[in-house]
């Protein structure tokens, strides 16, 4: 989990048994092959297009395609909403009025937040041009086709909070993504990844 305040990143990492986990991952996957695999817009779009049905079957019918957070160790469908609820705590704490989601996928997280916070404008950007249709009629929710490495279509210094859930791993240039979002955030804003 990375939290970035306008003036710089603050990284929180849990190092408990990290070496053990890394060895286990290395036994299961060819890490060098994964790291050196081509990664760009075409590969990302192809991956999600190819895995649309498996993601819907494996994850959640509401459209959440990321892992859920379970505090009791027992999976529940409601766990998929926990990441959005964490963002919502910051929306309310900061009394945010404009929120930007990067890499929104089908748009489920922003839709969930927009329905629960009708006084907040939520904008979202993704390479996919097909957010779930049922989310296109939420009045305080707006979608933009685009790459979160280039936010020039969005107004600078306009957003109280920017967030990304489970999409930063597909970034071809994380530093560029951070710098671009930093321009969009107001001086007293948060970036949550």
Task: Write the SSE topology.
Blueprint (H helix, E strand, L loop, with lengths): L1 E4 L2 E4 L6 H11 L2 H6 L4 H10 L1 H7 L23 H12 L4 E5 L5 H9 L4 E6 L14 E5 L13 E6 L9 H11 E8 L1
Short description:
The protein has 193 residues and is of the alpha/beta class.
Structure overview:
The chain is α/β, with parallel strands linked by helices and 193 residues long. The chain has one domain (39-192): Vaccinia Virus protein VP39 (Rossmann fold), CATH 3.40.50. 34% of the residues lie in helices and 20% in strands. It has helices spanning 18-28, 31-36, 41-50, 52-58, 82-93, 108-116, 174-184; strands spanning 2-5, 8-11, 98-102, 121-126, 141-145, 159-164, 185-192. It has a 7-stranded mixed sheet. Residues 1-15 have low confidence and may be disordered.
Give structural attributes.
7 helices; disordered N terminus; alpha/beta; 7 strands; Rossmann fold; seven-stranded mixed beta sheet; globular
